[in-house]
Amino acid sequence: MGRGRPRSVERRRAILDAAAELALGSQTLPTMDAIATRAGVSRTTLYKWWPSSAAVLLEGLLERFHASIEFDDDLPVRAALTAQVDALVHLLRDTPAGRLLRQLMSASITDAATATALLDQWMEPRRHAAIHHLERGMTIGEIRPGTDTALVVDALFAPAYHRLIWGHAPLDDDLAEHVCALVWPAITT
Amino acid sequence: MGRGRPRSVERRRAILDAAAELALGSQTLPTMDAIATRAGVSRTTLYKWWPSSAAVLLEGLLERFHASIEFDDDLPVRAALTAQVDALVHLLRDTPAGRLLRQLMSASITDAATATALLDQWMEPRRHAAIHHLERGMTIGEIRPGTDTALVVDALFAPAYHRLIWGHAPLDDDLAEHVCALVWPAITT
Amino acid sequence: MGRGRPRSVERRRAILDAAAELALGSQTLPTMDAIATRAGVSRTTLYKWWPSSAAVLLEGLLERFHASIEFDDDLPVRAALTAQVDALVHLLRDTPAGRLLRQLMSASITDAATATALLDQWMEPRRHAAIHHLERGMTIGEIRPGTDTALVVDALFAPAYHRLIWGHAPLDDDLAEHVCALVWPAITT
Amino acid sequence: MGRGRPRSVERRRAILDAAAELALGSQTLPTMDAIATRAGVSRTTLYKWWPSSAAVLLEGLLERFHASIEFDDDLPVRAALTAQVDALVHLLRDTPAGRLLRQLMSASITDAATATALLDQWMEPRRHAAIHHLERGMTIGEIRPGTDTALVVDALFAPAYHRLIWGHAPLDDDLAEHVCALVWPAITT
DNA sequence: GTCTAAACGAGACGGTACGTCGTGTCTTCGG
DNA sequence: CCGAAGACACGACGTACCGTCTCGTTTAGAC
C-alpha cells in the first residue's frame, strides 16, 4: 500500500519523450546517457526503471500506438485485412513509429529481451488480429478451409517491414491493397 | 608498380574466418578487438582494410555464398522462382549465412555504409534474378502483363527474412513452395 | 517538550552494534547504507541522528570504552604512567577498540569533524590523565621540573598508535613497560 | 625491446603533478577522475599505469623525496639520529610531503596495497637508516648493548607522525632534539 | 644484392558509454 | 515528532571498445 515517495510521472514522461526525440534524430539507438541528459534526469533513475534504451523506446512506442489495431468484424474479410495492412503501412511511413521500429528491430536482433518484448507486445497482437479475420473468413466460407494462416499473415505484413528496413522500395499508399490483391486469389473460395 | 610488401592473403583469410566464427558464437556483432585477437593479427591491420566489423563479416559472407543464385532459364518460370526462394530458405536456415545475415541486417539499420553494401551485393542480385524470371514469364505469356514485379519479389522473399529475424515461425522445407503457391494465382495468366 | 513519538533506544543500539560489527569485519569504514540494512533501520533514521558512519562508529566506541582511564593517585607516578600505556596497548590489541580506532583515525585524516570529535573525546582525556600524573610527579619532586609534559605524553602513547596503524611491529605485552623505561631516565630527578 | 609507441614522459609528469596539486588543495584523496581532468589526460591512461589515486600520489611522493635519508657515518651517533628525526620533522612540516603523507596514511589504513607500498618504500628505508646508526653505536660502545632498536626507532619517529596526523601539538624546530634527548639517557652507556 | 615502400605488430592514448555503488536529500505515508 | 519506504540527483568507480597515433620490424619486388 503506497508507501514511500511515489514515482514521478513527469519524469517518466520526460524520459519517454526524450528517448523518442533522440531516436528520431539519429540512425542509432540513443544511449542511456543521452536520454538521461536530454530528459534532465539522472542515469540512476533510468536504470532503475528500464534495463536498456531499447526498453525505454519500446515503452514509449507502445504507449503511443497501442490503439492502432483494427478489429471491426462488420467489414468484409478482405477489407478488414487490407485495412490492417494499410494501417501498418501508414504507421511505418507517416508516424514516428516507423523510425522507432527500425531501431527496435535492430536491437531485437542482438538483444533477446528486446526481441521478446517487441514480438509479444507489437508483432503478436497485430498477427492475431489478422489471423482472427482469416478464421472468420473460413467460418463464413469466404476463405478456403485449410489455409495456412500464419503464412498468409507473414505474406501480408512482411513486405511492409522489409521495405521499412531496406528502403529499396517505397511504402506506397496502395501497397496494402496490392499485397492483399496478390494473396487473395490463392486463399478465397 | 607492385612496390612494397604485398598484402598477406593468409592474414586476410584468418581475419575473415575469425570474424565469422565469432559471429556464429554470439548474438552480437564481434568487436574489432575480438576479431584481431582471434585472428592473431594487430588491430592496425584490421582498420587498414575494413572500416568496421560488419564490413569484415560482409566480405566473408559474400565470398562464401556468392554462387547461390539460380539463373537457369530452362526451368519453367514458377519452378525457377520456387527454386530461388527455396535456395534462400536453405541458406538462411542451414548455413552460417543465416546467422551472419541476421547480424548484418541489424548493423545495416544503424549504419548506412553496411546497408548500402548489403543491399547492393546481397539483396539486389537476388531480386534481379527473380525479376528476370518474372519478366521472362511475361514475355512467354505465363505471367500476367503489368504485374508489379518489385512487389511480387518482395512478397516472395520478405517472409523468409521476416522469420529469420523474428523467429516467430520456422523456415520450413516447404516454405518456398507455399509462398509461391500463395502468390501464383494472382500473377499467372 | 516530550511531544510526539520518543526516539527508539532499541534502534539506536541496533545501529551502534551493526556499525561495530560491520567495521570489525572489514578494512574499510562501513557505509551508511550497509549499517542501515544490517540494523534493520531506514537510512533516513541514520542520517537523522548521525552525519556519517564514522560518527556512528565513534559513538559506539566511546560508549563501550569510556571507563578505561586510570586516575589512581595512590600509585607511584611511574607505575601510574605505565598502567596508562598498558591499558591503551591492551585496548588496541585485545578489544574491538583497536580495529575501530584504526578506521576512525583514517576517517579523521580526511574529515575534520571526526578528527575533532576523536581528538576531544578519545585522545585528550587520555593525554590529560597522563599529564596529570606527570604534574603530580613534579609536585612531589619525582619528575624533573620543567619537563615538557606534552612531549613526554606523545613519546609514551605515539608508539602504540604507530604500531596499530602500520603493523610493522607487534603490540607486545611489555611494550608499555619498555616505553616507560625508555623515557623514565630522562624525566626523573 | 622497445616495440610500440613509447610511453609519454610528459603525461606521466603531468599526472604526478596534478595528483600532488589536487592533494595539497584538499583534505581528501583526489579522485582518479579529478587527476585525469587536471592533468589533461584520459582516465584510461591513468588506470593503465596506476591502480588507485593513492598509488599515483605515492609514486610522486617517492620520486620527489627519495633523497632525504641521512646515512653519514662520520657524525656521532646521537647527532646522526637527531639529524634523521629532524629531517623527517622538516619534511612533514615544511614540504608537501607532510600533507601527502597524511592522506596516504589514511589510504593505507583501508587499502592493503597502499599500506604495503608505503611501508616498504617510505617507512622501512628510514627505519633501517636509524637502526643502522643505533647498531653502529652499539659497536663503538656508545649505545647500551641489548637495546631494543625497533622500539627506540618507533619512540623517535612516532611522535612526529602522531602530531602530523592529529595536529594536537606543533612540529617544532626543536622537536627532533627534544625527542632524542628524551630517549638518549636510557640507551647510552 | 641492395634499396624501398608498403604491410604489419605492439602498444600508448583520448574518448564515450557502460552499469553499479554510495551519498545525501526529498516526498509521502503510518505509528 | 519518529520512523519506514522509496524516489531522486550526483559523482565516482573500473571496464570495454572505439578509432587514432607513433614507433619499430618485416618483406617482396624493383632497381
UniProtKB/TrEMBL annotation, chains A, B, C, D:
The segment(s) forming the HTH tetR-type domain are 9-68
Which positions does the record tag as DNA-binding? 31-50
Give the highest taxon in the source lineage.
Answer: Bacteria
Which Pfam family, an example, fits this chain? TetR_N
InterPro entries per record: Homeodomain-like_sf (IPR009057), HTH-type_TetR-like_transc_reg (IPR050109), HTH_TetR (IPR001647), Tet_transcr_reg_TetR-rel_C_sf (IPR036271), TetR_C (IPR011075)
Instruction: List the GO molecular function terms.
Output: DNA-binding transcription factor activity; transcription cis-regulatory region binding
* Keyword annotations: DNA-binding, Transcription, Transcription regulation
Q: What is this protein called?
A: TetR family transcriptional regulator
Which species is this record about?
Cellulomonas persica
